[in-house]
Amino acid sequence: MAVFIDGMKIFPPSSIDPTPVIVSREDQTASGKEVIDIIRRKTGVAFSWSLIGYDDLKAILDILNNGAFHQWTYPDPVNGEAYTILAKLSGEPGIKSWRVVGGKRYWKDVSMSIIER
């Protein structure tokens, strides 16, 4: 199944790792008892590419440079169906090194993580 950002199909990631994120507030009562209020459950997702062409990576980065929040659609690991969230990048994309093969530039070990709005 394909991955889409704002309705545009992107180069397929080598791996997709969803992670639940719990937004909570912790406090202590006067008696010393700790209490935790769960405010919201969000979804975080890490995408990685072991090898991606320059043009494919540039297309992804161009989409992400156009605003903070984007609609991401990716395969849900539980049921395999498409799952869509509105999310922003969590940190900067990890882009480690590149090489040239057949006159074309390829990036190695590229990763990026997103977190639901």
Describe the structure.
There is one protein chain. This protein is mostly beta strands and 117 residues long. The protein has 1 helix and 8 strands. The chain has one helix at residues 54-64, and strands at 4-5, 8-9, 15-28, 34-53, 69-75, 82-89, 97-101, 104-116. The radius of gyration is 18 Å and the shape is elongated.
Write the layout of secondary structure elements.
Layout (H helix, E strand, L loop, with lengths): L3 E2 L2 E2 L5 E14 L5 E20 H11 L4 E7 L6 E8 L7 E5 L2 E13 L1
Antiparallel strand pairs: 1-2, 1-5, 3-4, 4-8, 5-6, 6-8, 7-8
Brief overview:
By secondary structure, the protein is mainly beta.
Q: What is the share of helical residues?
A: under 10%
Q: State the low-pLDDT regions, or none.
A: none
Give the assembly state of these chains.
single chain
Main sheet record: 8 strands, antiparallel
Overall tally of domains: 1
Key words describing this protein structure:
117 residues; 1 helix; mainly beta; eight-stranded antiparallel beta sheet; 8 strands
